[in-house]
């Protein structure tokens, strides 16, 4: 969006005497990071934590995939396999997918997109990072002490009465990390309501802000239910009395209701911010206003609300009432509508745009394709009869990896490359960027497409052995996973390399719109030399801006 | 900046109303109401909560946004309970093991 | 406030007044920042004290909506369990001491009144009353917890704490008994499990509230909240009233269902 700004903000003058002061060089030393209340520095702290957790979770997945290369359970024991896929699920869901885009990209750019100097509650923001670390420590300690084998879903009564693994410590870790996302969501909602720049009306907000807002709503209204559920689970496990174990008068389905009340909307916590990133990327690299801005904005809110009404579709085969199943199935189909609206609008944005093929755009296009596959297979699963057939098979595994990895991780990588110049002031190497984006796209499809077929043929999930006829597809999947792993390590290397050696990016290397591009890279601590005043709708590409990248 | 303050008298009146309703709900629980006990108790509790929300928490003269926040909390609680019960009330499952 | 803030005073005067004709819908106006710019309580990233108070109050309301869902999980558990075992719940509820529960309700409602008056004293800049009402609120909160502990102790004496000690021996069971004695006992135990979890979490919130009020009481000594900046007192009050509202529902649902039978 166009703004009226002072010349210094738009084109920083090189200072011959000393380098321009920005958020990275304003202070140095460990304490200046660990005690910072600057949303940009906290975003960097989150990058570190989330990247670590991503590779820990990835390591668990690697062992799982290697085990599955052969039909026999020859690499790890049954128990260890259970612990490995549980560790993979818990770490990836709670410590990577849920916080990744809001806590890293959202933390960094959201205040800037609003023209604000910081989030509304900077100290709570720092606290949320420490809570994240504390939750991570609990979970990692539980894993090192011997792990947990319940699956990331903690289903009772296995988790409350039978499992002899570290359920309580892990559940505590989940409880703690939940408060971290509640604080982030709280900060976002309050900031969006109260700290928008002059002239920045609701329909001038970038779509990333809309999707962050919708995500925060889900976090705030869903996470506390998960928190109380794991508390009840832990109390039941310690006390031997409780509401989830049928042997003592409880109902395991009640646990599933409460768990999925949060954990289904949690899928939208993961994918809504990804959709917001993709909206930004598609607009920026098509040099065009987003088609159907209002539809995309309201679709985010619609997804947030409808997402709370469909959790029962995780329980179709668990013994819930068939009448309730009918309702849950119907509403599950309805969620597809706002999601499809978004896909159509992104596609229409590309039409007659000046599309360029930089790395972030490759990730965005990858997202659109993979999310579409993930979403369409979701419709299969919303249908009661089909769900009965493929429940607890690799079809499910493939479906949600297309949403989580094909959706959220692709968008996170795209957003990270897009805002990397803003965060660090450095340009990543474009050739390597495109190379790894393409590598990830192919590796991903080779890993997970065979799993659709495996699941449809009846291979159940969560077993370390399988019948021999499934081996070819499993070997393909493992081969794809190794390509995927390389695809994730390459960016780690060149992004770190770029910090020291890459060329300076300048304030707006993409010629993108949005307030964050109208301040120097890296931005000063207070983001803007003067509070910007917004006079145009978002994604207004003026002739001048369109010339920056040819 | 001195915000306009609600008169002490208003607060005392609301407090009196809350005490009255507390007495009423205890009395109602002892009265022969047939199957209406829970309904009456919840209605009185809602009235008390409304008094606290509107006057002690000043929701009565808060912005529309504050209303939306308060009501969305209630709406989501209703979603949680109603959709969960939609399962229980339409299957006779629990009763079977109960017997 | 911020350890990192640099040269920020100049920023409060946002640029270019002429560019925003007719853009009143945004929360910040370019003119903002003059009214409260030099108030010591104003954090550097806000333009004005009004904006800061609005943000803090909104933040607390949102937090409370979130808290409502936290207790909401418990209310769901309660609903399902009571729907499943109405007779056991009615029977178990009769074993709570009604007059103690009622007294505690009155104590908590009174503490809400004193909390509201504390906020009022902060708004009208009366330091002495503010401190007095804060002390009263804290005392009433402690009294509530004391009565609650007494009730817990009575339950303990009657072997009503769920777990291996739990026993209905010596209690007269209803006749006719729904299901067998063993099942019925188990369901009564479930009621007490829910009772202790709900009142325990409520008590935890009370303890946190008392701690917050204690900190505010200490900070209020220098007149910090009686110079027109009363947001901390106000949002602490919101929290306190919310905890009161939770009890307003816990009281009839836990204490007053002995006649209810079928829900």
Helices, strands, pairings?
The complex is a heterotrimer of chains A (550), B (99) and C (263).
Chain A: E1 3-4, H1 7-10, H2 30-34, H3 39-67, H4 78-113, H5 122-144, H6 158-162, H7 167-194, H8 207-239, H9 252-286, H10 293-306, H11 322-350, H12 359-382, H13 384-390, H14 394-424, H15 430-457, H16 471-501, E2 533-534, H17 543-547
Antiparallel strand pairs in A: 1-2
Helix pairs in contact in A: 3-4, 3-5, 3-16, 4-5, 4-7, 4-8, 4-9, 4-14, 5-7, 7-8, 8-9, 8-10, 9-11, 9-12, 9-14, 10-11, 11-12, 12-14, 12-15, 14-15, 15-16
Chain B: H1 8-30, H2 37-56, H3 64-89, H4 93-98
Helix pairs in contact in B: 1-2
Chain C: H1 49-84, H2 86-93, H3 98-123, H4 127-157, H5 181-220, H6 231-255
Helix pairs in contact in C: 1-2, 1-5, 1-6, 2-5, 3-4, 3-6, 4-5, 5-6
Q: How would you describe this structure to a colleague?
A:
The complex is a heterotrimer of chains A (550), B (99) and C (263). Chain A is built from 17 helices and 2 strands. Chain A is 67% helix and 1% strand. Chain B is mostly helical and 99 residues long. In chain B, 76% of the residues lie in helices and 0% in strands. Chain B has helices at 8-30, 37-56, 64-89, 93-98. In chain B, helix 1 (8-30) packs antiparallel against helix 2 (37-56). Chain C has a single domain (61-255), classed as Four Helix Bundle (Hemerythrin (Met), subunit A) (Up-down Bundle), CATH 1.20.120. Helices cover 63% and strands 0% of the residues of chain C. Chain C is built from 6 helices and no strands. Mean pLDDT of chain C is 85; it is low at 1-25 and 31-37.
């Amino acid at each position: 969006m166009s703004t009226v700004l002072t010349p210094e903000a738009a084109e920083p003058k090189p200072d011959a005497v000393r380098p321009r002061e920005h958020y990275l060089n304003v202070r140095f030393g460990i304490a200046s990071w660990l005690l910072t209340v600057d949303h940009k520095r906290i975003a960097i702290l989150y990058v570190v934590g989330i990247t670590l957790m991503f590779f820990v979770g990835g390591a668990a997945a690697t062992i799982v995939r290697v085990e599955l290369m052969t039909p026999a359970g020859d690499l790890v024991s049954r128990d260890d396999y259970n612990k490995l896929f549980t560790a993979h699920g818990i770490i990836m869901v709670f410590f990577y997918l849920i916080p990744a885009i809001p806590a890293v990209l959202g933390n960094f750019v959201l205040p800037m997109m609003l023209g604000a100097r910081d989030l509304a509650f900077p100290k709570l923001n720092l606290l949320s990072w420490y809570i994240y670390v504390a939750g991570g420590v609990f979970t990692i300690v539980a894993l090192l002490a011997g792990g947990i084998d319940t699956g990331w879903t903690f289903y009772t009564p296995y988790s409350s009465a039978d499992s002899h693994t570290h359920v309580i410590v892990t559940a505590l870790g989940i409880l703690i990390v939940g408060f971290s996302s509640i604080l982030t969501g709280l900060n976002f909602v309050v900031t969006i309501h109260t700290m928008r720049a002059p002239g920045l009306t609701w329909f001038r907000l970038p779509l990333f802000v809309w999707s962050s807002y919708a995500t925060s709503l889900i976090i705030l209204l869903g996470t506390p239910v998960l928190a109380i559920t794991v508390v009840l689970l832990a109390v039941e496990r310690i006390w031997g009395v409780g509401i989830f174990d049928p042997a003592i008068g409880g109902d395991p389905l009640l646990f599933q209701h409460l768990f999925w009340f949060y954990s289904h909307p949690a899928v939208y916590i993961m994918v809504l911010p990804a959709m917001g990133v993709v909206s930004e990327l598609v607009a920026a690299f098509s040099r065009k206003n987003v088609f159907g801005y209002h539809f995309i904005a309201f679709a985010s809110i619609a997804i947030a609300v409808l997402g709370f009404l469909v959790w029962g579709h995780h329980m179709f085969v668990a013994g819930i009432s068939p009448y309730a199943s009918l309702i849950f199935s119907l509403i599950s189909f309805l969620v597809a509508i706002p999601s499809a609206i978004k896909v159509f609008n992104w596609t229409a944005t590309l039409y007659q745009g000046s599309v360029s093929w930089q790395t972030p755009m490759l990730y965005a296009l990858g997202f659109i394709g993979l999310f579409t596959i993930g979403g369409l297979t979701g419709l299969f699963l919303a249908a009661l009869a089909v769900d009965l057939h493929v429940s607890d098979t690799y079809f499910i595994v493939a479906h949600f990896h297309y949403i989580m990895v094909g959706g959220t991780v692709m968008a996170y990588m795209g957003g990270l490359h897009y805002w990397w110049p803003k965060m660090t002031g450095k340009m990543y190497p474009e050739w390597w960027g495109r190379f790894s984006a393409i590598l990830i796209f192919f590796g991903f499809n080779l890993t997970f497409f065979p799993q659709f077929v495996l699941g449809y043929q009846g291979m159940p999930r969560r077993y370390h052995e399988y019948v021999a006829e499934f081996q070819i597809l499993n070997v393909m999947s493992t081969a794809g996973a190794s390509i995927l792993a390389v695809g994730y390590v390459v960016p780690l290397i060149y992004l770190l390399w770029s910090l020291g050696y890459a060329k300076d990016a300048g304030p707006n290397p993409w010629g993108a719109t949005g307030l964050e591009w109208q301040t120097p890279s890296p931005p000063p601590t207070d983001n803007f030399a003067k509070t910007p005043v917004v006079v145009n709708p978002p994604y207004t590409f003026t002739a001048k801006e369109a010339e920056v990248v040819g | 900046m001195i915000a306009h303050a609600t008169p002490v008298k208003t607060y005392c009146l609301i407090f009196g109303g809350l005490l009255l309703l507390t007495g009423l709900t205890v009395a109602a629980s002892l009265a022969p109401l047939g199957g209406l006990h829970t309904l009456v108790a919840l209605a009185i509790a809602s009235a008390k909560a409304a008094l606290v929300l509107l006057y002690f928490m000043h929701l009565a003269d808060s912005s529309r946004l504050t209303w939306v926040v308060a009501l969305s909390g209630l709406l989501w609680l209703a979603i949680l309970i109603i959709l969960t019960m939609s399962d229980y009330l339409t299957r006779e499952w629990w009763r079977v093991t109960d017997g | 406030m911020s350890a990192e803030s640099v040269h920020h005073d100049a920023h409060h005067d946002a640029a270019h007044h002429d560019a925003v004709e007719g853009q009143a819908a945004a929360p910040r106006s370019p003119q903002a920042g003059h009214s409260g710019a030099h108030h010591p309580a104003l954090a550097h990233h806000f333009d004005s004290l009004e904006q800061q108070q609005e943000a803090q109050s909104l933040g607390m309301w949102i937090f409370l909506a979130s808290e409502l869902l936290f207790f909401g999980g418990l209310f769901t558990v309660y609903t399902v369990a009571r729907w499943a075992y109405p007779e056991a719940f009615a029977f178990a509820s009769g074993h709570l001491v009604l007059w103690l529960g009622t007294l505690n309700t009155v104590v908590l409602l009174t503490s809400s009144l004193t909390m509201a008056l504390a906020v009022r004293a902060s708004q009208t800049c009366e330091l002495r009353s503010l401190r007095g009402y804060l002390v009263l609120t804290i005392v009433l909160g402690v009294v509530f917890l004391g009565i609650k502990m007494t009730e817990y102790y009575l339950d303990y004496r009657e072997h009503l704490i769920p777990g291996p000690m739990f026993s209905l021996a010596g209690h007269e069971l209803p006749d006719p008994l729904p299901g067998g004695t063993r099942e019925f006992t188990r369901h009564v135990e479930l009621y007490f499990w829910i009772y202790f979890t709900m009142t325990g979490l409520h008590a935890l919130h009370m303890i946190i509230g008392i701690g917050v009020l204690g900190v505010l009481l200490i900070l209020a000594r220098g007149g910090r909240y009686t110079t027109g900046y009363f947001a901390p007192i106000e949002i602490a009050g919101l929290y306190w009233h919310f905890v009161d509202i939770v009890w307003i529902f816990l009281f009839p649902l836990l204490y007053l269902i002995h006649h209810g039978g079928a829900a």
